[in-house]
Structure formats: C-alpha cells, structure tokens
Amino acid sequence: MSSNPDFDRWYAAQKVRIVLSPSKELETFGDTIVNYSLVSELEDFPDKVRVREGRLEAHKPLVITPREVEVEMEGFSEAARSYFNFLKENDEDFRILRYGYSLKSDNFSEVVLTDSLQAVVERVKLDVRARGDRFSAVLVGVDNPWDVSLIELWRREVWRSAGKNIRELGGKGKLF
Fold first, then answer.
1. 69 and 56 in one domain?
2. If you count Cβ atoms within 10 Å of the first and of the last residue's Cβ in the chain, which end, N or C, has fewer?
3. What's the pTM value of the predicted model, to 2 decimals?
4. Please, are residues 51 and 38 in contact by the beta-carbon 8 Å criterion?
C-alpha cells in the first residue's frame, strides 16, 4: 500500500481479476445475491493467501425518468439548462436504469492459508463450482484495499446485465 489513497484505490480496481463470473446476469424484476470469494496475497508474507467470502446484494434495477430525480448542472449554460428542462418535461422516452446494491457482512468470513496464490485460487474455484450457485464469483485482488475489488465486480456485473435488463423491461412495458 502506498501513501496515496487515490493511487491505492485505482491500483486495486485495475488489478482485480474475475476468474469465475456468475453464470447468470443480475435479475431484472427482483434482487440478486452475488456470493463472492476474494483471494489475495498478503503483502510481505510469502505463501500467505487470504480468502474472504461474503455477498453483494444487487437490488432490482429501477427505471427513472429525469422528472423523478434532481440533476446538478454545475458549469452549464442557461441554454443547456433550458434544454435539459425541456427534455425533463417533454421527452417521454428518456429513461435511466438505476442499480442499487448492499454489501452484506452477515455472511462475511475470512481465512488465511499457507499455499501459493494459484493453488488457493484453483481450490476455491472448484469449491464454488461444486456448490452450483449461478450467482457466485471468484476474484483475485489486492489485500488492501480489498473491498475496491467488490465495487469493481458490482460495476462489471451491472454492465454485463444492463442489456438483458433493458430488453426484459421493454418487453414487459416497464421501460416505455
């Protein structure tokens, strides 16, 4: 870890590898529990590997329109503000999907093992696959700040699921 927290956050986000993604996208009409296993090497301790397990709860995506949310428009001209207000009042097709999530600590656990990172990753992947949970993920990330890896997992899953969610919401008449 460096003395620069901004660098540490960006470094952690860039270093995360998802070695086993959930086999199913986030639910469109309900909440989704994504069970994660995060494997990381302990800094300065060769052959010490930490495995953290827990869950992310992704809330069903909400369709919001500009009328339902206040938007800060700092630095925009009056013409831009007027145009945005026009869209707010007149563009019925302008929609945004909002995903919420919760980090749950009620099922959180961690253990430190003595082995190589690759050996631990392979054992964790086998264990997760044996459970048959379509919403499980295995990540390899940094040990500190480790929770940045979870935010990156959530971001990637939202991105991966958005197309399906939009199609399903459109098909049920909930988007337009």
1. no
2. C
3. 0.77
4. yes
